[in-house]
């Protein structure tokens, strides 16, 4: 049977590096096994989800190259969840509860005082038909809870190994709210069964959920699937990723704006927290070939944007002009392949090309220290019309007593205004002799 996996974001927010990593693990597993990657939009929470977020999620995944083969939205499938709920009611797995939020809160506080865990005490199971009728007459609508077995549920997790959840230690989950809407728990199971999902790959914050969901799977007669719960991402300092991630270099929106390459982001997210070294990769295929659940460790994976920048630079150093041409055009960079090849080793993100473009072509006076003035004038005189750097250096060595840094640095500063940067040979050729001579003479050119 071929692998079928799904990434199931809720459109209540935008994508951040944490959920992109989950999407990536799903894609890599599908790719490495010749399977199918499904994008499921978990939009049962109509009040909090937005079309704008859903569009942004799809757009970001496409930009990253994480393409899905099938997709569907939960909001279009309420009839299936209703059917499943009816079945669970008939089988005695779903029971109505009338407790208000305040009552539940009070109950939890009392349990706290008594030193008991905050688990729902199933008082709703004791209600008589008359009591239920009385609540309904009061205008209370029931929410519906799934009756857990109270036994332990075990599975072999592809990342965490043997797992076991004591269902007696968790509250019977609410599957349907008082207003009749579904929480995520049941629709997810119904869809996983219906879409014939073989592997559920998601963050380890869902481990307890899985205990309850496995029981719902069983109750609905679904064949059991395989779970892989991956450790969560933490920031560089080991702290939780900020909830207000949208303005930080953690959101796809921000990383895209900052000019990062999809493959830099994917290379980093595929490797952090695994036994493989973090290295740049140029295609998803390479990452898929190297992917294995066994390599994923149990410790949280650190996401460090400094590491991302370094990977991005390495990827750009190998990126051909044809790949970036359109983006350079959009940035207003005028330059051809020679320009790109001259500067690509000295940039971290494509947008940095604009700076080098300005250095080369926008009018600028070179930086010349008083001690270097005569030397730079000599350089201007000796420069040939081809603006050949090696030729210029050879002549300067003959005509002056300068060498090493004392020879090169004044030229670089006069020609580019900077202390470091790309190799001077190609830069000088691109700049042309006239401009170079003028800058060496301290003129604006
Ligand atoms: N919508 C859920 C979430 O974003 C999906 C969890 C799952 O993969 O089952 O957490």
UniProtKB/TrEMBL annotation:
<keyword id="KW-0030">Aminoacyl-tRNA synthetase</keyword>
<feature type="short sequence motif" description="'KMSKS' region">
    <location>
        <begin position="240"/>
        <end position="244"/>
    </location>
</feature>
<dbReference type="InterPro" id="IPR001412">
    <property type="entry name" value="aa-tRNA-synth_I_CS"/>
</dbReference>
<dbReference type="Pfam" id="PF00749">
    <property type="entry name" value="tRNA-synt_1c"/>
</dbReference>
<dbReference type="InterPro" id="IPR020058">
    <property type="entry name" value="Glu/Gln-tRNA-synth_Ib_cat-dom"/>
</dbReference>
<dbReference type="GO" id="GO:0005737">
    <property type="term" value="C:cytoplasm"/>
</dbReference>
<dbReference type="InterPro" id="IPR004527">
    <property type="entry name" value="Glu-tRNA-ligase_bac/mito"/>
</dbReference>
<keyword id="KW-0963">Cytoplasm</keyword>
<feature type="short sequence motif" description="'HIGH' region">
    <location>
        <begin position="9"/>
        <end position="19"/>
    </location>
</feature>
<dbReference type="InterPro" id="IPR020751">
    <property type="entry name" value="aa-tRNA-synth_I_codon-bd_sub2"/>
</dbReference>
<dbReference type="InterPro" id="IPR014729">
    <property type="entry name" value="Rossmann-like_a/b/a_fold"/>
</dbReference>
<dbReference type="InterPro" id="IPR045462">
    <property type="entry name" value="aa-tRNA-synth_I_cd-bd"/>
</dbReference>
<protein>
    <recommendedName>
        <fullName>Glutamate--tRNA ligase</fullName>
        <ecNumber>6.1.1.17</ecNumber>
    </recommendedName>
</protein>
<keyword id="KW-0547">Nucleotide-binding</keyword>
<dbReference type="Pfam" id="PF19269">
    <property type="entry name" value="Anticodon_2"/>
</dbReference>
<dbReference type="InterPro" id="IPR008925">
    <property type="entry name" value="aa_tRNA-synth_I_cd-bd_sf"/>
</dbReference>
<feature type="domain" description="Glutamyl/glutaminyl-tRNA synthetase class Ib catalytic">
    <location>
        <begin position="4"/>
        <end position="308"/>
    </location>
</feature>
<feature type="domain" description="Aminoacyl-tRNA synthetase class I anticodon-binding">
    <location>
        <begin position="385"/>
        <end position="442"/>
    </location>
</feature>
<dbReference type="GO" id="GO:0006424">
    <property type="term" value="P:glutamyl-tRNA aminoacylation"/>
</dbReference>
<feature type="binding site">
    <location>
        <position position="243"/>
    </location>
    <ligand>
        <name>ATP</name>
    </ligand>
</feature>
<dbReference type="GO" id="GO:0004818">
    <property type="term" value="F:glutamate-tRNA ligase activity"/>
</dbReference>
<dbReference type="GO" id="GO:0000049">
    <property type="term" value="F:tRNA binding"/>
</dbReference>
<comment type="subunit">
    <text>Monomer.</text>
</comment>
<comment type="similarity">
    <text>Belongs to the class-I aminoacyl-tRNA synthetase family. Glutamate--tRNA ligase type 1 subfamily.</text>
</comment>
<keyword id="KW-0067">ATP-binding</keyword>
<comment type="function">
    <text>Catalyzes the attachment of glutamate to tRNA(Glu) in a two-step reaction: glutamate is first activated by ATP to form Glu-AMP and then transferred to the acceptor end of tRNA(Glu).</text>
</comment>
<keyword id="KW-0436">Ligase</keyword>
<dbReference type="InterPro" id="IPR000924">
    <property type="entry name" value="Glu/Gln-tRNA-synth"/>
</dbReference>
<keyword id="KW-0648">Protein biosynthesis</keyword>
<dbReference type="InterPro" id="IPR049940">
    <property type="entry name" value="GluQ/Sye"/>
</dbReference>
<dbReference type="GO" id="GO:0005524">
    <property type="term" value="F:ATP binding"/>
</dbReference>
